[in-house]
Amino acid sequence: MNNLINKPGKTATFHTTPRRLCANALIMATVVLLPFPAIQAAESQQGFVACPPFGKQDLLTVPEIIRDAAKHHLRGVVTAGDELRLLWFKSTPTYCASQYMRYLDNGQSFKIDGLPEPLPGPTLRARLGDTVELTFLNQINPQDFGQSIDRGEQGLGCDKTTLYPANTQGNDVPPNCFHGSSTANLHFHGTHTSPGTTGDNVLIQVRPSPRDGNGKPIVTKELAEGPWQFNEFFSECEKQYAQSVDPFVWPTQWDQLPLAYRTAQEEKLKDYDKTAPYIGKIGLPDGQKLWPKNEEAIKNKLWPQYYIGAYPYCFHLPEYTDKTWPPANPGALQMGQSPGTQWYHAHKHGSTAIDVANGISGAFIIEGDYDDTLRDFYKTTYDHKNWGLKEQVLVIQGLGVTPNLEKSRKGRAGFLLSVNGRQQPVLSMRPGEVQLWRVINTSAKDGLYIPSPPVGTLAWRQTAQDGVQLHEKN
């Protein structure tokens, strides 16, 4: 949340008095991240390899899903999957091990000894007035996480894993445990939008896609955008929001989703109810099945909760257009999205913490006049060799993923924090250059400290916090 200008001819590192920085902060800053406190990370599932040297890797730029300025929308695909990834070992941070981790695919992969580094999900970059249109795919393979489907929902207790069976040797006991950790959805922090239907709806539960004979997910981007007509749905969603002047929510009814998608979801949920583990096999009533719950909600004009493989998110980022304050018509309902640095992550109740600790999170940037003013100022007023304003998006993650266990997280000091998937990456900066740092702390339990820069080296200004710009009117 700071504006750092590197003084001519100087270099700098952070090494003086630390200062607390809250999650979702916006920063203008510079240079090299010094080591975070050496805190415990995760359990290992495989053999060890040497970790890349801390503090010697370059900061990675996370790929972005960028708005279409002409169409005023942010449209893209966000896919939850899992794979063996490189992870810092809990007791010996210089050694890394492979660990099955859930993640959001950003289309980028860097490997150490053949193991992918644990990068965050794609950065979403939208603007006030845009419609956000995301195809969410759940392609997590539950077989990589033991019994992680429906146990809690069916009253059968905690998720299990092969290495750590639940309820044995003093392990997790309901309700203090993770359950349904292979089910997912998306939660968008800081959005001024609907908490229902296809908006910021944390009650949605998207079960993983079924798999074919070769173990590949059946529900794919091509299926969602083709036969299931997600793109057609998004276009209709745009039209509905464009026609509305007052605050507005669309869709409101199940039958406003594409017919092909609704038909496929009913078929897949009914098939799921026949074969899903534990359902109907140990005397549980039919009321525990998923499709009857959806059917009941639809009948009562409510939004159904359960889905298989894919879900369309569509919501508007309303721009406050009244040019006066107080508003010229104070009797009218006024609302508007604040521009700022936000984030998103999986938020399936019962497994939110473990999914965030796996790394299912990413940056969500909402731009507005504030961003235009900053960029224009540094381009025209503070014109150091026409460098302008360089932006860095820094996603801090606390990765610690003992499979499905809640109790194992208690009593730990925390996790080793990563920045864009790497330990203590290096940022470079030229004398006189200005950088805007957008810092998002997505760790489930650890705070972040950024030391003050050496006196006479950097000019440091905090400009915003949690998406709110630091101005007297705010």
Question: What characteristics describe this protein?
Answer:
474 residues, 8-stranded mixed β-sheet, 5-stranded mixed β-sheet, 24 strands, disordered N terminus
Overview of the structural elements:
This protein is of the alpha+beta class. It has helices at 221-225, 230-242, 259-275, 290-299, 352-358, 369-380; strands spanning 3-6, 18-21, 26-28, 48-50, 64-66, 73-88, 95-104, 111-112, 115-116, 123-127, 131-138, 187-188, 205-207, 306-308, 310-316, 340-345, 361-367, 389-398, 417-419, 434-441, 448-451, 458-459, 461-465, 468-469. Strands 1, 3, 18, 19, 20, 22, 23 and 24 form an eight-stranded mixed beta sheet that branches.
Please give the share of residues in helix: 10-25%
Overall outline: globular
Largest sheet: 8 strands, mixed
Please identify the structural class as seen in this structure. Answer: alpha+beta
Counting DSSP E segments of at least 2 residues, the number of strands comes to 24
Measured distance between first and last alpha carbons: 16 Å
Regarding quaternary structure, what we see is single chain
- The number of helical segments is 6
Average pLDDT number:
80
Order of helices and strands: EEEEEEEEEEEEEHHHHEEEHEHEEEEEEE
**In terms of per-residue confidence, which ranges show pLDDT below 50 for 5 or more consecutive residues?**
1-45, 166-170, 279-283
Q: Strand share of the residues?
A: 25-35%
Using only C-alpha atoms, the radius of gyration works out to: 23 Å
